[in-house]
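Bench notes, afternoon.
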Amino acid sequence: FFADTSLPNKLDLGLRVNRLGRSSVELEAGVFIHGSLNELPVAVGIRTCVFVGKESKKGIDIPKETREALEKLYKPWTDDVPPLMKP
């Protein structure tokens, strides 16, 4: 985390997809004080999820409907859109 917050502060959660591969997705979540989504977050978390076959236990293609939903959240790191948390 980067800053303190406490009650009665309300919080907003931002979620974006940093990387979208064939069988994996990297999600980044930021916790913001309510109304401050354009400012620095108070906390950040990054999670990589890999889609695997039940039987094969190997990576499989992300299902079409899931990929389409993830693409709506896709915002890769660029100079204009830096990561919330430096890797």
